């Protein structure tokens, strides 16, 4: 893809039609004049452009489109390609598309698309765990979005800066970014219910991490209310669709189209089910941490329902929170049932499998079931020894050693505790 001058466009269309200069000139002008236009040495009049467009069977708008407009279209193409590649986890392809797009943003001073590409860089580095790079690109994107007055992306970049800060351990900084996002959304009356819900949840999460439980609960409840509003909008959208169908059946196409468009607008706001599912799951975690287990289960059930509707592969992480809740309230039978579901959904995931061993340990320890406790610990060690998870292996060696110490098997206890200590030392977690 490239930006073409007016002359290059005419020449390209002529070549596509297999026309000679003489054939294109016809009786209107000379082939030499056409050649001068194609080489950029002469500017054609509007009348001549209309003639050329007609001869080349194209719209005159194609010839009149500025180079900046062409560059914007090319950048939009590369931006869409980048988004698709990131969604597919193909970061190499995404970076390749970004680099091609940035060339045009620099050549034609396209601030908005430069900001979008910087934002995409931030997304990629955040996913890869390269937080300092992600932060740098997101700050650049935020500054450019502010310059271009792109309210939606100003808010989104503040949210991303908040998430990056949280991952870096700067909770107060993260809270400030989320508060800024909320302020801009309110000040500009920017209507995006899902963004609002994400911001409210993130503020609640920050207060939870800072130990301010009262504010955490307040914002968690605001998030819950906002999600309820989104659900109401779904019902409103469904009602609009029914009206549209009714009018269509009466051959009143004007009203049918009107309500169909209104419905589409509503659904475009609420059909981000994967994001809603994630918020519901996170609310489940938040309410669990505040010991509001009943409320936690309610949101986790909503998250599971949404993920099942989408055939979402991340359902296991929600089931994990379910299991943690059951262990917390000492409903060990339910917890064991949930472990079976987790392994069925995502048993191939090494981290998930190890997490299930941790749950089984807590369950059998809570039940004081020594036979199954030893079985689980030995199974966990055997499984993790085949993997490259040294920290987790050290943890289970230590747990197994403590177990044998508890049942007076001192020789085995020393063996596994020493194995755990050696691994911790190799990881630099304890001094030699």
Automatic annotation (TrEMBL):
<dbReference type="InterPro" id="IPR051476">
    <property type="entry name" value="Bac_ResReg_Asp_Phosphatase"/>
</dbReference>
<keyword id="KW-0802">TPR repeat</keyword>
<dbReference type="InterPro" id="IPR011990">
    <property type="entry name" value="TPR-like_helical_dom_sf"/>
</dbReference>
<dbReference type="InterPro" id="IPR019734">
    <property type="entry name" value="TPR_rpt"/>
</dbReference>
<feature type="repeat" description="TPR">
    <location>
        <begin position="277"/>
        <end position="310"/>
    </location>
</feature>
<dbReference type="InterPro" id="IPR001387">
    <property type="entry name" value="Cro/C1-type_HTH"/>
</dbReference>
<dbReference type="Pfam" id="PF01381">
    <property type="entry name" value="HTH_3"/>
</dbReference>
<feature type="repeat" description="TPR">
    <location>
        <begin position="394"/>
        <end position="427"/>
    </location>
</feature>
<dbReference type="Pfam" id="PF13181">
    <property type="entry name" value="TPR_8"/>
</dbReference>
<dbReference type="GO" id="GO:0005737">
    <property type="term" value="C:cytoplasm"/>
</dbReference>
<protein>
    <submittedName>
        <fullName>Anaerobic benzoate catabolism transcriptional regulator</fullName>
    </submittedName>
</protein>
<dbReference type="GO" id="GO:0003677">
    <property type="term" value="F:DNA binding"/>
</dbReference>
<keyword id="KW-0677">Repeat</keyword>
<keyword id="KW-0963">Cytoplasm</keyword>
<dbReference type="InterPro" id="IPR010982">
    <property type="entry name" value="Lambda_DNA-bd_dom_sf"/>
</dbReference>
<comment type="similarity">
    <text>Belongs to the Rap family.</text>
</comment>
<feature type="domain" description="HTH cro/C1-type">
    <location>
        <begin position="10"/>
        <end position="63"/>
    </location>
</feature>
